[in-house]
Amino acid sequence: MHPDTDNSSKRSGIRLNKFVAHCGVASRRKAAQIVKSGRISVNGIKECNPSYMVQPTDQVYLDSKLILPEKKRIYLLLNKPKNIITSMADDRGRTTVRDLIKDQYPERIYPVGRLDRMTTGLLLLTNDGQVAQKLAHPKYKIKKVYHVVLDKALQSKDRIRIAQGLELEDGTAQVDQIEYVQGRSKKEIGIELHLGKNRIIRRIFEALDYKVIRLDRTYYAGLTKKDLPRGHYRPLTEQEIIMIKHFI
Length: 248
Description:
CATH class of the largest domain: Alpha Beta
Helix content: 10-25%
Structural class: alpha+beta
Number of helices: 7
Largest sheet: 9 strands, mixed
Number of strands: 17
Shape: elongated
Low-confidence stretches: none
Distance between the termini: 35 Å
Oligomer: single chain
CATH architecture of the largest domain: 2-Layer Sandwich
Radius of gyration: 21 Å
Mean pLDDT: 90
CATH topology of the largest domain: Alpha-Beta Plaits
């Protein structure tokens, strides 16, 4: 432990967990966990206290690698294709969202939340750990809209059951709105929700004996796929950055 740790509250500077988050390593909460796990050292001395105040002359290391605060905040909107892993690395060698952006953006950028491998559509990537953490937190109720294609027509009684909230093994799956896509067959459904549970839409329909053939996120936190082809990405505009921060 660093010798100045006990007096950290009396020193000026920036808290260690906040410093680590500003380096683009993780959100501030996860950064605190990283510090507590013993992976951080300051000036060559292991530091496990997230409240340690980093000084301008301090050198901070993660797993023996020097880390520095990200000076440029990056916000990218990706229209994720099918068969891409929402991760920055994959130990099985599968293509990840990182592979789609690394040539133009070598910085540490992370996806906000997840889309499973076969789900397509909007995914936000950023090195702003604080924004990422808040957008992913259920209390902010970030609006997400999906276009769902089923293996068979959705019966009206089942649509009503979903709208009322289905009981799944991990609690009630509450959706904000569910409707048939106008002008299409009843196999095509629009569903709006703010839940972030793993595979929640697929599990909702599986519980009623439907199979999801295609799942595409068309709207996220005020952002849409307009003029963004599948597999392409773009930086957010200044107005969009202001907008997503307004959500939180």
